[in-house]
């Protein structure tokens, strides 16, 4: 029996055309009734789709109608059902961010790629970093810092000169953004189960913003980050082009 497919598309013209063509060919059911959700767009739309459907426990197969498409498969209208039958499943646990704003509000958000902190003023940020309740860095002077999952390690983390992580590695990348002191500090690899806390020093003079996958929590005084083991994003990739292969390949270009 053919799988029931739910097609979701970004606003891009190419994605909207693909939505029409694929729906005519394979049908289109609501996501809650689907065996597979097919996301048409770029990596940003893929992240939005995963966030928006995480309660459904339905695997998501992305086809690239965007720019980079690291989380996406090659686009083709033909043989989609066969590709889905052969696809490899990767399971991703997001990060859970718990941020306290300067106004005292506590905001929780999930991040599939990374939780990042960025200075919000003209002066460098000063951030203290604790891991599992132990202060590890008393003062990081920087433009910011981030924690990335293996799935997100080739995104903002890689641009900030952080390491690329194999998808099967139970580690997170803690990466500094333009570190001034300690001079050229590049960050650390932490166990996936680690609880990381950032405390903003001099928050009035040196304001810092916090984001989870570019979803802003505003200006903050502290951020706590843990892996959300209770949430499992199921992502499908064509054989030989799964995240494991992509993460390895990316390190040799």
Automatic annotation (TrEMBL):
Q: Could you name the Gene Ontology cellular component terms for this entry?
A: cytoplasm
* HAMAP family membership: NAD_kinase
Q: Which UniProt keywords apply?
A: ATP-binding, Cytoplasm, Kinase, NAD, NADP, Nucleotide-binding, Transferase
One Pfam family name from the record? NAD_kinase_C
Q: What is its main location?
A: cytoplasm
Instruction: Give the enzyme's EC designation.
Output: 2.7.1.23
Is Transferase set as a keyword in this record?
A: yes
The record's top EC class is: transferase
Q: Which GO terms describe its biological process?
A: NAD+ metabolic process; NADP+ biosynthetic process
Record organism: Maritimibacter harenae
- Give the SUPFAM superfamilies listed for this entry: NAD kinase/diacylglycerol kinase-like (SSF111331)
Residues holding NAD(+): 43-44, 113-114, 143, 151, 154-159, 178
Q: Which domain of life is it from?
A: Bacteria
Q: Name the catalysed reactions.
A: NAD(+) + ATP = ADP + NADP(+) + H(+)
- Recorded protein name is NAD kinase
């Amino acid at each position: 029996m053919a799988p029931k497919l739910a097609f979701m598309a970004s606003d891009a013209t190419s994605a909207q055309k693909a939505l029409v063509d694929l729906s005519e060919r394979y049908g289109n059911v609501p996501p809650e009734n689907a065996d597979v959700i097919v996301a048409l767009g770029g990596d940003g739309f893929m992240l939005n789709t995963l966030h928006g459907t995480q309660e459904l426990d339905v695997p998501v197969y992305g086809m690239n109608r965007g720019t980079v498409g690291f989380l996406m498969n090659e686009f083709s209208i033909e043989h989609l059902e066969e590709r889905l039958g052969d696809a490899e499943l990767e399971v991703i646990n997001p990060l859970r961010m718990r941020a306290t704003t300067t106004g005292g509000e506590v905001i929780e958000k999930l991040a599939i790629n990374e939780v990042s902190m960025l200075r919000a003023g003209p002066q460098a940020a000063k951030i203290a970093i604790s891991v599992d309740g132990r202060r590890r860095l008393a003062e990081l002077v920087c433009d910011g810092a981030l924690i990335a999952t293996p799935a997100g390690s080739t995104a903002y983390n890689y641009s900030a000169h952080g390491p690329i992580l194999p998808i099967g590695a139970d580690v997170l990348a803690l990466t500094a953004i333009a570190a001034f002191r300690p001079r050229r500090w590049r960050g650390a690899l932490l166990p996936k189960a680690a609880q990381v806390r950032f405390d903003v020093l001099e928050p009035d003079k040196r304001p810092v913003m916090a984001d989870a996958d570019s979803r802003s929590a505003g200006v903050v005084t502290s951020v706590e980050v843990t892996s959300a083991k209770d949430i499992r994003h199921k992502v499908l990739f064509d054989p030989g082009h799964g995240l494991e292969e992509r993460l390895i390949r990316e390190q040799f270009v």
